[in-house]
Amino acid sequence: MKIAIVCGKDEGPTKLNAFDNALSDAGIGDVNLIKVSSMLAGNTAITDLGELKAGSMVNCVLSEVTSDHPGDEITAVVAVAIGNELGCVVETTGINKEKQELIDEAKFMVKYMMEKRDVKINELIVKEATTTVECIASVVASVVYLEE
Length: 148
Fold this sequence. Notes:
By secondary structure, the chain is an alpha+beta fold. The protein has two helices and nine strands, in the order βαββββββαββ.
């Protein structure tokens, strides 16, 4: 199994446009995203996103938040833990929360999921997107499941 971890942020004239622009900034704006739960195969490989065919159906875990309140700091986080047997993904978001607090929350959740499954973590990766809202802004962080 191969995944890519991507992040994006942008503004737009509406909440939908800001979200669409953030997806484009992350490189996943021209595909249909299918939200999936949080499980990965063992020894999943992390790779670059590469080029996705426009209009294709793409599985992902998606963390996203949008705000139209100028001055808000918005953050989207994904955390990935990979073990020999399986891997887990978590997502979290925050508005006006400390970025490090959200990162720590994501790490805690993904470590807990692996611990409950009695799987040793070989690799732990956390990615986030943060921005301060000027007018209407959106941030996304996503784990994209790639075809083998």
